[in-house]
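Section 3.1: Structural characterization of target chains.
Under the original work plan, the team committed to producing a structural model for every single-chain target entering the pipeline before any wet-lab resources were allocated. The record below documents one such target. The sequence was received from the expression subgroup and is listed exactly as submitted; it comprises 421 residues.
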Amino acid sequence: MLGDLIRHRESFIAFRYNDFRKFLSAKFLLTLAMQMQFVVISWQVYEITKDALSLGLLGLAEAIPAVSIALYGGYIADRSDKRKVLVFVLLGMSLLSLVTWYVSSLVLSGAILSAVPFYVIMFCVGLLRGFYSPSQFSLMTQLVPREAYANSSAWNSTFWHVGVVLGSALGGIFLGWLGKQVTYLIVTSLALLSWLQVLRIPAQTFTPAPRTENVFKSIRQGLHFVFRRQEILGALSLDLIAVLFGGATAMLPVFAKDVLHVGESGFGLLRAAPFAGSVLMALFMTRYPPLKNAGKKLLFCVAGFAVCMIFFALSKSFYWSMFILALSGAFDNVSVVIRSTIIQLRTPDDMRGRVSAVSTMFISSSNEIGAFESGFAAKLLGLIPSVVIGGAVALGAVATASVGLPKLRELQLEETHRKGE
């Protein structure tokens, strides 16, 4: 009884800190807004082009600038007030959402007949995300003490996934019920609320860059740090390969429309399913963080994710597909929390921005560039074979990592977390 009470209190340890609560609400609102926006944009682009590859190019348009600017964004995060960086980024996101509403109105009126403006918008979103990702991760770490790192990572993942679940579902529902224009205005309002929440967080301390510091040398230090640590590089590489080759979420509009025949609302539910599974798993991990045998759990869950993608590709049932996607989300979220906790615990304070930037590059490569790979592979091999083959490649990567990366396989975070090493 006493043990259960202690674990219950430890589940909410990060919420003792008011600034963390503000940070979490801001991230939730922005995630909600961006997911709703992407759902509507992806549907609108597919309506214009009728081409699965166009959805892959949409992800690529965001990934290229995000990856290109991420290392510099990490440098800025390590040498600036992270909160101030986020204020500028979120204001930019809000303005872009308003621009999206205007562009959509021109498309609907027939003044624009091309999807190109949407690609330009996603390119600008990618530029902002290159600064947002390292700054928000570094800021979160500043807002809680070391003993709350794992808990803050779990709650951060929980709220992010809840935002994605609601954003994906509401994006599809609002798209069908309220139309594109009203949905874009709701997105703009949510982004502005996120911006206001970050404004309420006090300014944070940071180490200014010495006048003689070479920016490129500083960035190289961050890269060298990651590539010298097998557990960090291995976790990031597994995420990259699994989602780059094994992910199928970018093709969900095609599965919804041409395979499962469930339309716009069904598309929103399919997109929400993996994140629903992620939320349930994340809530479980707030109470039981995956610190013991973390390496083995990471390998198992990446393999589970890949298997789910294969079964999803072969499914002809809407409800069975939703269940498989939810299960894939649960597997994926374990690896997300483990990866985040590794970076928090094993990275010095003055290097978190740059290390997080490297993580951003891997994640952007796996998600957005993976979306392009999915579209290209679907066009080349066919929709279902491309997903099945991609899942098999991801399983091969897990097998290789389990043999070739012993430090990752034997990783234990429990001792590091307890001793504060």
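Residues 312 and 321 are 6 Å apart (CA to CA).
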